[in-house]
């Protein structure tokens, strides 16, 4: 920085031999402060615009085709059973489901539409069940789930905090409402074993649910919301609970029940013996059993492939339209301005 | 999530505000009519502001619904896992970070190294945050624990959805920007085209020499100036006459 006393020193130099050098207040020049950094100035020329749209189209259409092919390869059996598994002579479904003395066993027959290669994933699907409701999502205590010494931590678990003065482990509405329908399978009259290990995320088993935390005082109240837990199995091995406690994002969701490591052929018959315990009748929910294969993209969802194809097609259309406009150029003022020299100057 | 506003998307915006130049300093001095964009309120009109707000809402709608429709109740990985609240949230968040930073890349007129750093680091920092925050003990990171390292990073569906949603959110703006700069350019857009042509033109034939500096009307501000300027814009002719000055220059741009 140059010295600041410029005005004072220069004004008094009347009798000197040469005019005293005026100390300048000009800041030191730098490209940064003068905003002259090297830069490129991109502009939307026809060449760039059309090539960008073409590039997006060329990338998106093959991805869309690949996604659609992957989705079509998935074989899925979805069987809704909550309406069919209630006997036809029952008028009050709610009373029926809440009556613990009636046996709720139900048999369903599924037909395999196409060859299904193992592993085949078994899910239960719930509709109209808002696991993403804010109060519901908060109704848990992570410290209690992880640490045996924190068993009495039940903050935020209302209304399932304590029972008879003792803390409930695991507390909260999410644990209280664990899904409790069970399924056993038979494949063409042979018993089909279902692997129920490793259905939850490893990080949940290792870090969020303690291996020394045991259920205590659970489902002892007048209202039973769902599954009753075995008090001798630690929480880190209660995989159904862990899967359920990973709250779903949307009101229609599936949760992994188990895996089948047997190939199923087309037109095979799968007989399912299920226990229709879970109450979805009080809120118009639906329950379904799903058997599905998977691909690199996951399960069956045509939307991704179709969306890619739509966006790719739209980009091709836009590239075509802009090419046409560029060729016809009706009022392309800017283009004309830059590439023609018809600027008349009158005086 | 206030980190979102501060870290992942504020830097490019600040960098744009500080470093962006729609027209270079040299051309600014040559075309004083550019100054009129201020008094005539061309850049901060309500229609323009509402347009940007609408664009924000529209992008949010596109991102939200496309993400939800792509990741529904089916499995999203080869091992059959389904999505949950944190996975859907992290995916949507990723799409937003990409869309916003790419939006900055499209909007910026003057791409310095600093802009590049801000935009790309915004995106990179988001992934870094996901990894680091996900590695912190779950008593702090709760639902985001290992969400990227375990669930999303290895899921091709995650990357496929991010690409689709980010591009789909940007296409409307990009198309409108092209239509605007090609067919309805603002005065500074016209100067940008001139700048672009001047770079490619014969150095001996400098377009700027042809256009002389001309004086502005005596009423350069106010309602009457805006009214006149509107007339001028619609006729796409620029006629200036200053009765007080000696020379009278008329420039006709066809």
UniProtKB/TrEMBL annotation, chain A:
It is found in: Membrane. InterPro entries: CDC50/LEM3_fam (IPR005045). The chain crosses the membrane at residues 48-70, 306-328. Keywords: Membrane, Transmembrane, Transmembrane helix. It is a multi-pass membrane protein. Its main location: membrane. GO terms for cellular component: endoplasmic reticulum; Golgi apparatus; plasma membrane. Pfam families: CDC50. Residues 1-30 are annotated as: Disordered. PANTHER family: CDC50, ISOFORM A, CELL CYCLE CONTROL PROTEIN 50. Belongs to the CDC50/LEM3 family. This is ALA-interacting subunit.
TrEMBL record, chain B:
It is a multi-pass membrane protein. It comes from the Eukaryota. It holds the Pfam family PhoLip_ATPase_C. The chain crosses the membrane at residues 49-70, 113-136, 157-179. The lineage of its organism: Eukaryota, Viridiplantae, Streptophyta, Embryophyta, Tracheophyta. One of its GO terms (biological process) is phospholipid translocation. The keyword Membrane applies. The keyword Iron does not apply. GO terms for molecular function: ATPase-coupled intramembrane lipid transporter activity; metal ion binding. GO terms for cellular component: plasma membrane. Keywords: Magnesium, Membrane, Metal-binding, Transmembrane, Transmembrane helix. Residues 1-186 form the P-type ATPase C-terminal domain. It is found in: Membrane. This is P-type ATPase C-terminal domain-containing protein. InterPro entries: ATPase_P-typ_TM_dom_sf, P_typ_ATPase_c. It comes from Aegilops tauschii subsp. strangulata (Goatgrass).
């Amino acid at each position: 920085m140059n010295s600041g006393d410029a005005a004072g020193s220069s004004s008094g130099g009347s009798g000197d031999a040469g005019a005293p050098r005026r100390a300048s207040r000009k800041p030191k020049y730098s490209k940064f402060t003068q905003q002259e950094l090297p830069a490129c100035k991109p502009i939307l020329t026809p060449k760039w615009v059309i090539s960008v749209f073409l590039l997006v189209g060329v990338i998106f259409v093959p991805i869309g085709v690949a996604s659609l092919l992957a989705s079509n390869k998935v074989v899925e059996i979805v069987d809704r059973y909550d309406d069919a598994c209630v006997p036809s002579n029952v008028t009050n479904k709610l009373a029926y489901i809440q009556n613990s003395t009636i046996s709720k066993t139900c048999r369903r027959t599924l037909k395999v539409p196409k060859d299904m290669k193992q592993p085949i994933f078994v899910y239960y699907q719930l509709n109209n069940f808002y696991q993403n409701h804010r109060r519901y999502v908060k109704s848990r205590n992570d410290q209690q789930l992880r640490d045996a010494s924190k068993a009495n931590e039940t903050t935020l678990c209302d209304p399932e905090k304590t029972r008879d003065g003792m803390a409930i482990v695991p507390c909260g509405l999410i644990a209280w409402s664990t899904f409790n329908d069970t399924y056993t399978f038979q494949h063409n009259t042979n018993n089909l074993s279902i692997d129920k290990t490793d259905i939850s995320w490893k990080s949940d088993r290792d870090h969020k649910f303690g291996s020394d935390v045991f259920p205590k005082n659970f489902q002892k109240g007048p209202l039973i919301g769902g599954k009753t837990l075995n008090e001798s199995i630690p929480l880190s091995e209660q995989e159904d609970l862990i899967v359920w406690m990973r709250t779903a994002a949307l009101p229609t969701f599936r949760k992994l029940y188990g895996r089948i490591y047997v190939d199923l052929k087309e037109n095979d018959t799968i007989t399912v013996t299920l226990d229709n315990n879970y109450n979805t009748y009080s809120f118009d929910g639906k329950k379904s059993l799903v058997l599905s294969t998977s691909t690199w993209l996951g399960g069956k969802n045509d939307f991704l492939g179709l969306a890619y194809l739509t966006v790719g097609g739209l980009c091709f259309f836009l590239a075509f339209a802009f090419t046409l406009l560029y060729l016809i150029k009706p009022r392309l003022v800017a283009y004309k301005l830059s590439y023609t020299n018809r600027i008349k100057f009158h005086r | 999530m206030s980190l979102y506003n501060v870290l992942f998307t504020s830097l490019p915006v600040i960098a744009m505000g500080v470093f962006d130049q729609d027209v270079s300093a040299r051309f600014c001095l040559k075309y004083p009519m550019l100054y009129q964009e201020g008094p005539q309120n061309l850049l901060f009109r309500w229609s323009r502001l509402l347009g940007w707000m609408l664009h924000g809402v529209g992008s949010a709608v596109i991102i939200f619904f496309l993400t939800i429709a792509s990741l529904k109740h089916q499995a999203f990985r080869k091992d059959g896992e389904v999505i949950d609240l944190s996975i859907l949230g992290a995916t949507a968040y990723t799409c937003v970070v990409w869309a916003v930073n790419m939006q900055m890349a499209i909007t910026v007129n003057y791409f310095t190294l600093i802009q590049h750093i801000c935009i790309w680091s915004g995106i990179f920092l988001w992934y870094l945050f996901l990894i680091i925050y996900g590695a912190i003990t779950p008593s702090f990171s709760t639902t985001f624990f290992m969400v990227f390292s375990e669930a999303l990073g290895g899921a091709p569906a995650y990357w496929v959805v991010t690409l689709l949603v980010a591009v789909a959110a940007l296409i409307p703006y990009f198309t409108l920007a092209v239509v605007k700069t090609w067919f309805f350019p603002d005065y500074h857009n016209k100067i940008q085209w001139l700048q672009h042509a001047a770079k490619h033109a014969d150095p001996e034939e400098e377009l700027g020499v042809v256009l002389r500096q001309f004086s502005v009307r005596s009423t350069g501000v106010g309602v009457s100036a805006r009214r006149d300027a509107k007339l001028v814009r619609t006729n796409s002719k620029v006629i200036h006459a200053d009765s007080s000055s000696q020379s009278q220059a008329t420039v006709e741009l066809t």
